[in-house]
Structures are given as structure tokens and as C-alpha cells.
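Data card: per-record layout.
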Amino acid sequence: MITQTNILSEHPLTAFQEFSANTIFITDFTRRTQHSANPRSVEISKVPPTMDDGSSVDAVTFHNDQELPIEVATFDDYRFEDSTGTNVEHCEGSLYTLENPQWIAFFEIKDCEERNILNHKEKAVRQVTNVANDFRTRGIIGSEKVYGIISFPRKHTAFNDDIFGDIIEYTHLRRTTGILFYATNEVFILDHNELRPVLS
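The structure for this 200-residue chain is written out next.
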């Protein structure tokens, strides 16, 4: 069963936040603030995110209409290692329901220009897969449904088909990783058992 205790026992530098809000925004400020006096990284909030000057910024949005208690774990620059002690790429974080979790969603945000989306596909899939495999190997997750949400916040039209439109490739990816991958900036948390990504 997914719990904060289980994650912390294996990855003690993980940061956690709990929300029962009807909307959860996850924003990666890293690229936009790397040269500023106040560099920021991945932030989670229940209000639309803004830059330090008050201007709006795009985010991946999880709608939680039932206001279920949700826990978001962020890994930031924390290192994940394989069995040989080698550092591996990892996604930004994960979220799951606090009560009777039957799913976990790993998320990776690529804050890139729209024209560069396809250049980031393979790395994003690899980052999510690495952490899902790590959690499985360490017994943090077992039979829970696993989602991989890949977000490109600057893209304002549907792009799942651009990333996962090849059904043969997608079926192989799902079979070999055990992960339900979706490329989207918007997801509905239906209940303890299921998510519904917005794909159009």
C-alpha cells in the first residue's frame, strides 16, 4: 500500500504536500526562473500559479471534484540509483489518494517550446518508467494502477496523439512497462480507483 512512510523509508529526501482542494496545480518554474534572483522549481498549489511579478504561468492541472484527500510527493533533484549505485533519470513526482489508494500517477513536466515536444518524448517516458520500476522493486507499490502523466504546459491544444498516437508502439509500451501513459496538461481524479486524462 502506498504511504508516505513507505516512500520516506526508501527515499528520505522526498517532499510531501496534502490537498483536499477541488483543483491541484503542479508547475515547474525551473526553466523560467533559472536566471532570476529567486529561482524556483516544482511547486504545487490549489490556486492558479503566478510568476513573482504576478503574471500567469501554465501548469498541469488535476481536477478533484470530490475533494478527495490527495498526497503529492516531489523528488526535485533527489537522486535515484539503480542496483549498481548509478544515478538514473527520474520524473518530478507522484500523487495518489490518501485513503485506500488504488492508483498512483507519476508526472513529468516538460516546460519547452511547442516545436520541441517530440524531442522530449523518450526522456520523459524513461524518467517516469525509472521511478515506477524503483517503487515496484522497493515494494512501495504493488497491484495499484500506475499512470504516467507527461505534461507540456506551453502546448494549449491536445497533443496526446502527437506523442502516443502510434497504437502498436503504445500497446508495446504499456505491456512492457505496466504504465498507462498519457500526454496531457489536464486530468480528472474520478475516485480512489481511476483517473481520466483530458485528451481532446
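Known properties of this structure: The mean pLDDT is 91. The two ends are 33 Å apart (CA to CA).

See the next section for split statistics.
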